[in-house]
Write a structure and sequence with these properties.
Elements: E1 2-3, E2 6-10, E3 17-20, H1 30-43, E4 45-48, H2 55-63, E5 76-77, E6 80-88, E7 113-120, E8 128-132, H3 133-138, H4 142-149, E9 152-156, H5 158-161, H6 166-171, E10 184-188, E11 190-192, E12 199-201, E13 208-211, H7 216-230, E14 236-239, E15 246-250, E16 254-258, E17 267-274
C-alpha cells in the first residue's frame, strides 16, 4: 500500500508493519500522519528505518499521538526528562525488558504506546520480539474465552521496580524511584481495544499478580497457560535493530520481549511512553 508517498508493508502474518517514505525529522502533514495512525491501529506495532532524529524531533513526533506518560522508574536521558534511557553496558548482564510484557499495565490508565529509538546497537543480537494479544485471545476455545471474559486481574509494579526487587538490584543505576512502586491496580483480563474494538488478552508475566478473588497459587496454572499460549511463534514477529530504527508499539494490543543475547556490547535506546485512555472489557 502506498499513500502520500508512504509505503506500509506488513512485517509478519501476525502483527507489525514497516513504514517507508517518511522522514520523521520533518513535520508530517495531517494526511501523512493519518496513514501512519491507521497502520498503527491495523498492525499493533510499526517500524521505521534510518531516522537520524534529535531528541527534540523524537519528542515532537511522539506528541503528535498523545501527551507523554513519563516512566517514573527508568533513568531519563540527560537533559530530556520525558525520554527514558533503555541501556545495557558491555559489563552488565541484566537487560531492560527481557521477558514478555506490556508497558505500564501496573497503572490505572496504562500507557497507550511506547516509541523506542535505537541510538547504539550491538554488532548482532538485541532484537525485540512482539506478540499479538488479539490473535492470542482469538485462538482460545469458546469455553476459555467465556471464562476469561468475566475475570479481572491485579497488576503491580512493586515486585519489579520496588525496594528490594531483584530486578532493581541487578539493574543498578538504570532504575530508580523504588518508593513510587506502590500501586496495585485491577484490569479486565480481556479488554476491548479503545480504538479498534478488537478484544485482546490483557495479562502479562511481568506485572500481573493474580486473578481478582483468586489466590496467586490458584491463578498461576491458568496464567502460565495463557503466557505460553500467547507467544506461539505464529502470533509473533521479530525486529532486528539498526542505528536510527524506531519501533512504536501499542501496549493494549501487543506484548514485547527484548532479547538479551549481546553480552560484552553496548545497546542504547531512547524510549518515550505515551498516555493512554481508560481500558475496559
Ligand atoms: C522495553 O521493554 O521497553 C525495551 C524493549 C527493548 O529494549 O527492545
Amino acid at each position: 500500500m502506498s499513500e502520500f508517498g508512504i509505503k506500509v508493508t506488513p512485517y509478519s502474518s501476525a502483527l507489525g508493519a514497516l513504514i517507508e517514505g517518511v522522514d520523521l525529522a520533518q513535520s508530517l502533514s495531517e494526511q501523512e500522519f493519518a496513514v501512519i495512525r491507521q497502520a498503527f491501529q491495523d498492525y499493533g506495532v510499526i517500524f521505521f528505518r534510518d531516522q537520524a532524529i534529535t531528541p527534540e524531533q523524537h519528542l515532537a513526533f511522539a506528541r503528535r499521538w498523545s501527551p507523554i506518560d513519563v516512566n517514573r522508574f527508568f533513568k531519563p536521558v540527560e537533559g530530556y526528562p520525558e525520554i527514558a534511557q533503555v541501556l545495557k553496558e558491555p559489563d552488565q548482564h541484566t537487560n531492560i525488558g527481557g521477558d514478555w510484557h506490556t508497558d505500564h499495565s501496573y497503572d490505572e490508565v496504562p500507557a497507550m504506546g511506547s516509541m523506542l529509538l535505537a541510538r547504539e546497537v550491538p554488532p548482532r543480537g538485541g532484537d525485540t520480539l512482539f506478540a499479538s494479544m488479539g490473535m492470542a485471545y482469538e485462538a482460545l476455545s469458546p469455553g476459555l474465552k467465556a471464562m476469561l471474559d468475566g475475570l479481572r486481574a491485579v497488576h503491580s509494579s512493586a515486585h519489579v521496580f520496588g525496594t528490594n526487587a531483584p530486578y532493581v538490584k541487578s539493574s543498578g543505576a538504570r532504575l530508580g524511584n523504588p518508593e513510587a512502586a506502590t500501586q496495585h491496580v485491577v484490569h479486565p483480563v480481556v479488554i476491548r481495544h479503545p480504538q479498534t474494538g478488537r478484544k485482546t488478552l490483557y495479562v502479562n508475566r511481568a506485572f500481573t499478580l493474580h486473578f481478582e478473588g483468586w489466590t496467586p497459587a490458584e491463578s498461576k496454572p491458568l496464567l502460565d497457560y495463557l503466557y505460553q499460549h500467547a507467544v506461539q511463534p505464529e502470533f509473533t514477529c521479530r525486529f532486528e535493530w539498526e542505528k536510527g530504527s524506531i519501533a512504536f508499539w501499542d501496549n493494549r494490543a501487543t506484548w514485547h520481549y527484548a532479547l538479551n543475547d549481546y553480552h560484552g556490547h553496548r545497546r542504547l535506546m531512547h524510549r518515550i511512553t505515551l498516555q493512554g485512555s481508560p481500558i475496559a472489557s
